[in-house]
Amino acid sequence: MKKFTLCLKICVLSALCVFFYAFSDPEPLEQYVGSLQKTFTDHYDSAQESGLIKRYELNVTNSGFCRYKRYFNKGKTEYFAFKLSKFKDMDYYGSTATGKLYIHTKGDDVIVQTYKDKGGDVDSMATQIIIPLKNIEAEDLNQIRENLERIVKLPPAEAPKVEVKSGD
Predict the structure, then answer these.
(1) Which has the closest alpha carbon to 84: 34, 122, 141, 139?
(2) How many whole angstroms separate alpha carbon 93 and alpha carbon 100?
């Protein structure tokens, strides 16, 4: 009888663990990254650069990076990337209709690369990335800040799983 009771306890405990795990929230990093990607995709303002930019790619990945690539009409390409955990602060200049989001990092943490430029290809580092936005409310900006601040506070052991991409 003791063996049966022990086996029953183990089975019930295992079933409870599986049940609770099945209904638990997805990993926090995935939630924050998904929210950031959706906000950037919904509010990106390509019209601010329509005369200069042929297309762009703006990706926030589950590995914790923000990548922004601009392809200019004359062939030049600019690439910006930074680790979301290096976020320090952000500023928004403009109105709810149109403006620019300045995301500042803790140091020279933004990778800047240019290709096919008349002055030659350049690799450098910067302290900020500028993203043109439109139709954005204060609540959306607050949500961006909250998500970035939460990512900074996550333990570094968060393992990447899937990459979320978007672009024109």
Answers:
(1) 34
(2) 5
HEC assignment per residue over 47-65: HHHCCCEEEEEEEECCCCE
Distance CA 130, CA 132 (A): 7
Backbone angles phi, psi at 131, to 5 degrees: -120, 120
128-134, strands of its sheet edge to edge: 87-94, 98-105, 128-134
The string of pLDDT tens digits covering residues 89-143 is: 999 999 999 999 999 999 999 999 998 888 788 889 999 999 999 999 999 999 9
pTM of the model: 0.74
CA 32 to chain CA centroid, nearest Å: 8
For residue 7, give Cα distances in angstroms to 14, 20, 21, 92, 165: 10, 20, 21, 60, 47
At 160, the amino acid letter reads: P
Q: Give residue for tokens 């052991």.
A: 157
For residue 30, the tally of other CB atoms under 10 A from its CB is 16
User: At residue 137, what are phi and psi to the nearest 5 degrees?
Assistant: -95, 165
> Can you say whether the dihedral through the CA atoms of 97, 98, 103, 109 is positive or negative?
positive
